[in-house]
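Researcher: Here's my situation. A collaborator sent me these components and asked whether they could plausibly form a single complex. I don't have experimental data yet, so a predicted model of the whole assembly would be a useful starting point for our discussion.
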Amino acid sequence: MFKINCLNPIAKIGLDNFSEEYAITDNYEEADAVLVRSASVHELDLPDSLQAIARAGAGVNNIPIDKCAEKGIVVFNTPGANANGVKELVLTGLFLASRDIIGGVNWVNSVKDDPDVAKLVEKNKAKYAGIEISGKKLGVIGLGAIGVLVANAAMKLGMEVYGYDPFISVRSAWHLSKYIKPSKSLAEIYKECDFISIHVPLSDATQGMLNEEAFKMMKNGVRILNFSRDSLVNEEDMIAALKVGKVFKYVTDFPTPKMAPLNEVVAIPHLGASTCESEDNCAVMAVSQLMDYLENGTIRNSVNYPDCDNGYPDNAGRLAIHHKNIPNMIGQFTSALAQENINISDMINKSKGQYAYTLVDIEIPSTPEIKQKIKAIEGVYRVRIVK
Ligand SMILES: NC(=O)c1ccc[n+]([C@@H]2O[C@H](COP(=O)([O-])OP(=O)(O)OC[C@H]3O[C@@H](n4cnc5c(N)ncnc54)[C@H](O)[C@@H]3O)[C@@H](O)[C@H]2O)c1
Ligand SMILES: O=C(O)CC[C@@H](O)C(=O)O
């Protein structure tokens, strides 16, 4: 029986896919695997029972992925599963940034009981006027699952779209419209674009990338959209740029105490992935990946371990070994098994950065003694008996 703990509410359609071999537990400390959305795992201990964490979503900055890797805990996410939900809100954001729609609606609410409201509207509406997005230049930074959908959709709405992503995947490149202009530098995006939307993961490399230096290069009155993570933007620098009108509107899915009260900021309560469809897609994908990992040792869409699939374990035994990606690990595994006169019937080894993963199928059922022998090898983080 595998015990699953949910750190956030997870869509029922996903949880319903767990077979009777699984039980949902309220006790994180005894969980074999955890499902999470935005709850932070950084402050939590990682119990020895924990084998996997599945993020029902894209961003994994709420999970200590290296610490997990070193304990042999595989961290999954669900690439693309909520991308359409986010894209639709980004399109909404483009329109909210083009005229002061929120300011105007709030003002109408403040005068709604006035019998002369219709006259007041005609007298005051100019304050909330703006521009059309058609014909304007949009810069999309990060052309992954979301960025590509945003770029293609904005192009269809008549925008001239520039895209920047030095690490674009083949899959994304396939899906990107040929009408999107590839930018060679961020500077080109900053200098050319009337609207800029950022779709990169938060990391040491991207933290604070929209800062004073970047704003200096931008057009006066640029509109900036951030549906990725708050600290991609340097808050003080953004506030300064808003005050002088360098940035006309900042639309963000991540309100902060300093940003939320500003008139030039449209602060949305992290709603990007909050649609029935996105929540269902993420839950179904996360649960499927967890089950395949727990039952077969298969890794799909992990952010700290490599993809690795040796199918259903149809030999007598299977060991899943998490280890450092250094020379002579496989040699030591095979020697250890040979010393016990155990024949290997199949084996697969994959690596991702400094971490590696080996699935070894053997001709006898795995035992705690075999597990212990492999675990004793220097550089091994975890050994799991799959079968
Ligand atoms: N608001 C929400 O509810 C919501 C929902 C989903 C995702 N997100 C956020 O959006 C981010 C993107 O999601 P996604 O599904 O498109 O992820 P993704 O992994 O498919 O795409 C990210 C893209 O950013 C690119 N990239 C990385 N560093 C870059 C850099 N320095 N400059 C330019 N491009 C760079 C990568 O090459 C990749 O193509 C997530 O990491 C998450 O933080 C927010
Ligand atoms: O789960 C959510 O609501 C937010 C998800 C989103 O921020 C993500 O990175 O996928």
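Model: Some features of this prediction you could bring to your collaborator: The CA atoms of residues 376 and 382 lie 10 Å apart. The domain at 312-387 is CATH 3.30.70.260 (Alpha-Beta Plaits).
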